[in-house]
Amino acid sequence: MASRIPGELLESIGKCLNTRTDVSRFRAVCKSLRSSIPRFEKQLQFPIKVLIRNTNGSNTTFTLTESIVFHLAPPRDDPHKRGWLVKVEEGKYGETRMLHPLSQFVVGRLPHSFPKVFNLLEFRVFEYARVYSIHDDGWWDRNNKVALSMNLGFPVVMIIADGVLYRGELDVSVNNCIEVSQLDHDQHYDYEDVIFHEGKFYAVCQDGQAVVVDSCLNVKVVAPPILACSGGDHKKSLVESSGELLMVDRYPSTMGEDSYLDKWLDIELKFKVFKLNTAENQWIEVYERDALSDRILLVGDDSCFSVSARDFPGCKGNSIYFSNFFYMKNNMEVLDCEASQSSTSPSLIDEKLDADYEL
């Protein structure tokens, strides 16, 4: 039957397959489809050396890595299992390692129920997110952020390091190295997150001010600061959900004069979610009961993304799953937006993955 499909239609379908998983599944259907499109080839081979040229004339070198978050969903005839949410990083020579879904920590101990071999004919594999991180001599700083544009007309990388926003072209033809420099005409030194959304880069500062960077590298403020969400105790994250750009602000429920360490060891976190209104150039707070509908936000130390609660039976929508590594806890927690309460919960997966504090 596939042999009857017009060649131009197969070509159009092939152009829409952007992941290795999608290409492999398409080619596996039959010989006709396998011959219609080539094997998947990565545009960039990671890890990649990154050279930051600082304004004072000094240089800093990092290593840029890529990891992919997959949902290994069980067969459709088993509606009660959630499957597995895993993050896999592939090395220079094809070797792989599993990372915690919301951080760069290596998974040291797999649950007993985790399959030793995944038969892709039994599991449905979905790619949820591509995560990019920079490492300094193997050390990962969770405050550094990376966003990439693979568009042929706009191949750019944006990096936040020490609160400064850098940009560089994705050209690795010379010594497999990307050179980046501080974004022109931008004097902010307190950026916290950056994301590539609808063909543009968006970055947010510690006080909530947001800027957009277009393909000509023009910088424009698209949202002013939010005074109620500023201060060193607040942490901003950007995430795309159902086509909209959201900002998640997390902060401790109590802000007193305790020591920094005591403050974060055992204290409840609060969250506010804002939606970017591009027509009015401001963040609009979305309130609990209508905030996320059936969506689940996953707010990690190195990336943020959203999933549908329908894909994870038993998990509640309108929730935020977040890592607590930054706050001295080695676990994943969940915030029920309707109840405004958080608790430890590994319920996005069938069993907890233990992460080691080492790379």
Report on this model:
- This protein has 4 helices and 25 strands.
- By secondary structure, the protein is mainly β.
- The chain has one domain (about 50-355).
- Strands 1, 2, 3, 4, 6, 7, 8, 9, 10 and 11 form a 10-stranded mixed sheet that branches. It has a 5-stranded mixed sheet with strand order 21-20-22-23-24, with no helix packed on it.
- Strand 16 (about 235-240) and strand 17 (about 245-250) form a beta hairpin.
- It is globular and about 60 Å long.
Structure summary:
With 359 residues, this protein is mainly beta.
Overall pLDDT: 80
Q: Alpha-carbon distance between the termini?
A: 49 Å
Main sheet attributes: strand count, strand direction, barrel closure: 10 strands, mixed
The value of Rg in angstroms is 21 Å
Oligomer: single chain
Output the number of helix runs.
Answer: 4
Structural class: mainly beta
Number of strands: 25
Unreliable runs, pLDDT <50, ≥5 residues?
A: 326-330, 344-359
- Count of folded domains: 1
β-strand percent reads 35-45%
Spatial shape: globular
Helix and strand succession? Answer: HHHEEEEEEEEEEEEEEEEEHEEEEEEEE
Helix proportion range: under 10%
